[in-house]
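hey so i finally got around to running the thing on that chain from the lab meeting. sorry it took forever, my laptop kept dying and i had to restart like 3 times. anyway pasting the input first so we r on the same page abt which one it is
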Amino acid sequence: MIEDPEKTADLLADILQIRREYLLSRLVLPRRFIWIKRKLPETTASRIGALKIKGLGFKNEFQRVYPYETLAPHILGFTDIDNNGLSGIEYSQNNYLSGAVDVENVDASSLSYGFNINLTIDKNIQHIAEKYLNEAVVAHNAPRGAVVITDVKNARILACAVSPTYNPNYYYRYTSFQRASFSVVQSFEPGSTMKIFSAAAWLESGRADMNKKYHGSGEITIYDVTIRSTHVNGWITMADAVRLSCNVAVIRAMQDVRKTELDSMLRKFGFGDRVCPDFPGESSGLLRPVKEWSGISKSSISIGQELSVTSLQLAAAYGAIANGGVYIEPSLIDSIELNNGHKIQQFYPKSRGRIISRENGEILRQMLKSVVESGTGKNAAVPGYEVAGKTGTAQISSSRGGYIEGAYTASFAGFAPYEEPLISVVVILDQPVGLIHGGEIAAPVFSKVVSEVLPLMGAGVASIANPVPGERSERMPQFDGHTMPDFTGYRLSEVTSLLNHLQSKFDASFSFSGTGSIMQQFPEPGTALTKKQKIKFQMR
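ok and heres what got predicted. didnt touch it at all, straight out
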């Protein structure tokens, strides 16, 4: 029907920005029908229609659009030009999303738009996680990172942030590295975040002695392999070994635990297995059968080496500690519904039951709390809330065996608030440059994320604890209601009520360093206070 292919090619080349030669080669093909270009903008289609060229026609078709663009693309995935899912939920739930699934008592004509898939992801929490993760990845020159947040009560995934991110509307502009779901599809060696699960095996063995001390020397040699600690800690208990993240003391304590007991405990916490079937492409990580362990494997695994895990496994495992010892499988899909909102399937949390005793669960919780209060995780502290967690700094294994020189994964895993936990949070930064320890760079991300997510979930701010009970004073800095008071010379125990007032009135956040009385403050006294004011104190 195209009467003048050459003239038609001239006109279309300008409008479609396609080479004239290519268009002409298509227009002269001996076929009754060919595609010229699909997914045209309305304005472009109108310009072509106005040419009134016989033989040119249009077909209306759907186009998948992601209105939040770079928000959660590693979860959602993307589709091809025919709207077939190629990755993420788009891929795993393609039959539902396209309406290709037969459902009893559902009229097929009502499925032209497909089913709706409702996820457990909270877009606001996802945004917070992505914001602070991206900041950290840039600040520490890390090629990638991840933050996973789950609901402690039901293990539903509230956020799964991966950096670098991408825009699924234009997925073809990004590399496979940018589109990869790091820490979920690709597992990593966890390092010291695993020590709390070694402590769980130690407690559950029935042979644990909380008062027994182990020599936290700088190194220990097992079968000609030397394992070192960052610091020499002297004689310490298992609780202190976790708090100070002492490799040597943990290994010595674990000599009282059989390797089968450690393996069993790790598997109860979900390691070595896929824990979220909803998540497309989720890795099971690596936890080799006990029969394949070497003479040093128990020691290596107890400090987070010789195995790999996913961020989902870690988040669910820390959630089980947070709730006192009950393991709940993480989930990503909340429900499936018709286009009119009628739900045809609702998904509920799946529990594997109690995996550690309530008493031991409370001991583990206290260990993780001490890590933040006085151990390697001080930078994870959140003003106004008590939180708990564990730092991790792991060498990155080489495909040729051994470890890559100078390459590390920094992490922090924990939960908040301490008394009635709402969220389990895992932060991972891969191969940072400069600062490398989880307590230095991953813990602050945890603090920032938690400080914004908890109020969003309705968690009331806890009263700031009095660091020196019994030292309350009637002294109080003068406050005019608008400007920064002069806190110099006061102890925190003397200004607790005023700090709570600033927190309430200005949504202020606090950071503290040192102990004793306040020596310096920011902002300076007399500075006008603003909403979301950040206040820093340096104590003597």
